[in-house]
Structures are given as C-alpha cells and as structure tokens.
Write a structure and sequence with these properties.
elongated
Length: about 120
C-alpha cells in the first residue's frame, strides 16, 4: 500500500513538473521573441527558457518508469520489479544525456540573439 501511494505521488509530481515547466517556458518565449524589447532582456529570457525548458524534458523521461511502477504496484501489470528498476536506470541514463547537449548549444544561441537585436 505504501508503494502504491509513493508511486502515485511520484507520477503526479512528474505531471505537475512537466506542466509547470512547459507553461513557464511558453510564457518566457513571448519575451524572447518580442523584438521591441532590448537585447539584454531577450538574452535574459533565453537563459530562463533554456533552464526552465529542462523540467518538461526530465519529467517526460520519468513519466514512463513511474507509470510502470504504479501499474505494477496496483496490480494492473504483471511485471517483475527488476524490469521497473531497469526502467528507472534507463531513465536516469537518458536524463543525464540531454543536459550535456543543451549546455553545448548555449553559446551559439546567445550570439545569434545579440546579432539579430543589434543589427
């Protein structure tokens, strides 16, 4: 019973984390694309969007393992817990990979925004 409560909470937390981060990035994107704003504000919005947009990405990665764990704990799916652990391990490995690729793309985006705003 405790595991069902825990996995329900985690699965709902993933949903809220996804939705909140997605809405935050959506709202900040309006500041980013508003050409009437100074380049500094747009650059600041780009940094915010970059960091806030990671929340929905991470949440979607963890939606499947928490959903599988919830289904197994409720008895809806007959799987060994080893598969659930493997799903969580895969999710952690997957979650570690987008962070590096986003960080590597950070610099070119900054220069493009600065050039378009000043020229």
């Amino acid at each position: 019973m405790l595991e069902t409560t825990l996995f329900t909470f985690l699965h709902l937390l993933v949903l809220v984390y996804w939705l909140g981060g997605d809405l935050g990035a959506f709202y900040a994107s309006f500041v980013l694309t508003d050409e009437a704003r100074p380049a500094g504000q747009r650059l600041g919005a780009a940094v915010v969007v970059k960091h806030v947009d990671m929340a929905p990405r991470m949440a979607l990665i963890f939606a499947a393992p928490t959903g599988l764990a919830l289904a197994v704990s409720r008895g809806w799916l007959a799987l060994d817990w080893g598969w659930i652990l493997a799903a969580f391990a895969l999710a952690v490995i997957w979650a570690a990979s987008p962070g590096a690729s986003i960080s590597a793309r950070d610099r070119p985006g900054r220069r493009a925004i600065s050039r378009s705003a000043s020229g």
